[in-house]
Amino acid sequence: MDKLLLNNDDENENENCGDENNPQNESTDNGVVLLFNAKYNISVISVIGQIEGHYILPPQNKTTKYEHIIPALVSIEQNRDIEGLLIVLNTVGGDVEAGLAISELVAGMKKPTVSIVVGGGHSIGVPLAVSAMKSFIVPSATMTIHPVRMNGMLLGIPQTLSYFDRMQERIISFVVRNSKITADRFKELMMKKDELVMDVGSVVDGENAVNEGLIDSLGGLSDAIEALYSLIEIAKQEEENEHEEKAQEEKQGEG
Q1: With bands split at pLDDT 50, 70 and 90, how would you rate the model's confidence at 69?
Q2: What is the DSSP letter of 58?
Q3: HSE value, Cβ hemisphere, 13 Å, CA-based, for 58
Q4: Three-state DSSP class for 157?
Q5: pTM, 2 dp
Q6: Least CB-packed of 125, 187, 198, 199 within 10 Å?
Q7: Are 80 and 2 within 8 A, CB to CB?
């Protein structure tokens, strides 16, 4: 069985996991878990803490490294044994381009994908949450929507402001394409005053995120897994239909 392995430190464990007659769940230090002893073989990716991009964050920070997640997504999309992907989000945000890159990869996957926001899906976590085919949020979770920000010294020149505007439009465009919220409403939430201390933006809880059209459904882990199973069943049925149509075309060609 072709399985995704991102950490090969424990050789004995990997040998046991590689036994096709006794498939085991696999987990790695990079937040990727493969579930083979279930109704369907799914992979779970957790995006937690701060999303680390081109710069290494201090060791005391809990981070999700995009150089780990990106190759994992590519492997999951190609692995025939993996039938779906569940993305669990509890992130404070982080590097905008890294988060957007991960979001674009998830949105471009043909394999069934479901996301669930637990705790928080803040900042660049918003595009990550909406990137899946179906998105969930637990009632107690929140999502912070605010304009693009950058740390460090900045040059107060028109080119810098133009860069921020273009980056912000990229995020807005992605969110609008992958959710039911309108661009005007998302901008309104992004630029809202008097809700965040020393900043502009909005904090929406689980119910409001669904009402705004940002997230598809309010629900917990079992709801997200059931939705993923339904998407997998639909994908399997569509694949069977394609095979039948192709077989009929071949028969007609031979006749």
Answers
A1: very high
A2: P
A3: 2
A4: coil
A5: 0.82
A6: 198
A7: yes
Scan for tokens 């999951």, then name that residue: 76
Q: Output the six-digit token pair for 23.
A: 């498939």
What average pLDDT is seen over the chain?
Answer: 84
- For residue 135, the cross-strand partners are 115
Q: Which residues contact 21 (CB under 8 A, 6 or more apart)?
A: none
Strand partners, 224: none
pLDDT tens digit sequence for 166-177 = 888 999 999 999
What residues act catalytically?
Answer: 123, 146
Q: What are phi and psi of 23, to 5 degrees?
A: -65, 135
Instruction: Please give the structure tokens belonging to residue 151.
Output: 């740390």
The tens digit of pLDDT for each residue in 17-42 reads: 444 444 456 656 566 777 777 899 99
Q: Is 133 left (phi over 0), alpha (psi -120 to 50) or beta?
A: alpha
* Owner of token pair 């950490």: 7
Go through the domains of the chain in sequence order and give each one's CATH number.
11-254 (3.90.226.10)
